[in-house]
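Batch manifest, entry 17 of 40.
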Amino acid sequence: MDNSKDNTFTIGEESAGIIQVADDVVSSIAALAVLEVDGVSRLTGNISNDLVAKLGKRNLSKALRVIFEEDKVRVDVTIEAKFGYNLIKISNEVQEKVKSSLMTMTGLECTSVNVKISGIDMDGENV
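Output type: structure tokens
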């Protein structure tokens, strides 16, 4: 993977040319995957589903960090969970969803997804 000056990463070289993905795209994919998990209220910083699609990596930096390691990535994410949900189950689902989404959409292998739960949303749905 080539880390170039304009914050894009080469994920493939085909006979027709090079495929590059901006790091903001990878961050957005990871953030949206986190927010799809049942029991996740929000990413820390109150970022909603609609905003994540429009925001870049800089705006997600407190809640989500993607670290590029050669041709793989590591993700650190901080979430607020809904009250009444099993925190371990939510964390495991976040890890699997992020890994799966990044592999499916970019072909990038995610070595680890570190989940930090910063709070409980008392207004969230109860199980």
